[in-house]
Each structure stands twice: as C-alpha cells, then as structure tokens.
C-alpha cells in the first residue's frame, strides 16, 4: 500500500491520518479523547484549559465543569465517579446522593478518584491540542499512571466509525485481534510492564471464530455473537457504545445496568496516562490505532494473516501483521 499522509506536529512527533477519512454520513471522521489524571481538582483543570485552548468555564456541579468556546470545541472535566454528580447521572444510579452529600463525597474521595477530561470529536490534525493541554496540566501538577503503587489513570480514544456495515466493523475487529498482543507490549513496555492492569484479552474461542476468513457477518449477527461471549466493558477494544447506538434493546438485555453511552465509535481503552512525564505525547498511541485501521482496510492481507493465524502460525502471523501495520 502507498504510504499514508501524516500530520506533522513537530520534528519528533507525527499524528497519522485515518485510512478511511469520512464517517458513514459523509462527515470528516473525528476522534474523542478521554484523559484521566490525578493531582488536580476538576475546577483547577478546567481553568487550565482556558489558558491552553481558550474558552469559558461553565459549572455543571461541584465536581463537574464544561469549558465552552475553546479552539477544539466543548470539553468536559469532571471527577470520574457518577455518585459525585447526582444532577447529571442520578437517573442511572440505584443510590442517588443529595447535592450536598455528593459535594462532600467528591471533596473527600477526590484524592483517590481520577479527574477525567473528555473532548468532543476532533479531526486527527487537531489532536495536537491534546498534547498542549497535557503540557499545561503537567505544569500545574497533574499526575498520570506510575510504574508503582495502586492508582491507575487511562487514555481512551473514540474514533468515529466509517461505516455501520457488519463487514466494516468486522474488519477492524479482525485487525485488532491480530495485533492485540503487539499493542499490549507496545503500550505497556518497560521493566514493570505487567503492573498496570490491561483489560482481559478476548476469549480464544471468540478470536478463532472472528478470524475465520469466512466470518463476515451482518451487524446484527456480529452484535449477537459478540454479546454472547463478551458481555463486558473489560476489553481493550470496547464495542458496546457502538452496539448500544445501533440497538439499545439488544445491549440492555445483556447488560441492563452497565455504564455505557451510545456512540457510533470504536472505544479503544488504554491503561496508561503518562501526563506527568515531560515531553509525553498521545501521538504514538494514536498512531497504533491507525495501524489497526490500516490493516483492516487491506482485505487481501487481512484474510491472509487470518488464515496463517488459524493454521497454527499465530506468532508468524502476528509478526507479519506487525510489519504490515507498523505497530
């Protein structure tokens, strides 16, 4: 395949472009970013966004803020626990706290609960702003996942899907399953790479089913079979927000109380926010996701690698997939 265009951030970091640039309804594809950190209250983090990307802070509750009018659209910053925001999430909770109790809960529990920053969908060339925001937060004392201790903060990408066809979703899932081992190694890395908690991998029987070269289901069939074996959000590639967007009744029948928002996105969950490390960029993690989509878009190579994997050449197939995708 021809080299894909890259979006240059600086002399050392580039953000790759998506191989399929438009959504199913013809818009430029965006990606929402979720970034977790400690060391700053949601209010302090929201104020820092104004310095980094402009805008104005709107208070939603004692521990939830929205920054509007920024250079990258609306950004939400809140304590990452629904019980601290009864007005916003109370209808989803079996126990709803009063506003005063929720305020106190957030004040005393906030040291142990991440602050989460969530952006609206951004086109890839605008992801450079996240690095600028991270640098601003770091200068104020934001802390990320450490190689020791019990606290863990995540980085999640939510790229909008290019199509709602079963074949399109299945191709990305196949590519992800082929590359998941390499992605885990690349994400964790280092001498203490097993300390941060990665979501469990997909069950081997499900992997074998999906990687069959003949497995190209309709979206309803893909959803039904996925939910039968993966009725959990504990996967690095979480398809439940997409499935909820397509058919809420089917997902809620399997997971009536799970915290899921319907969104036409691939929810790619990473356990490491390195926001406290000077020079850290979300670029490498984003580029690894683009590598998955790049492999998914090459049907001939994808089918060949799936056949190799299922014929017992799993390690060789993964190595070939890594070389093909440049993970």
TrEMBL record:
Q: What is this protein called?
A: Amidoligase enzyme
Q: Which InterPro entries match?
A: Amidoligase_2
Per its UniProt entry, which superkingdom is the organism in?
A: Bacteria
Pfam families cross-referenced by the UniProt entry: Amidoligase_2
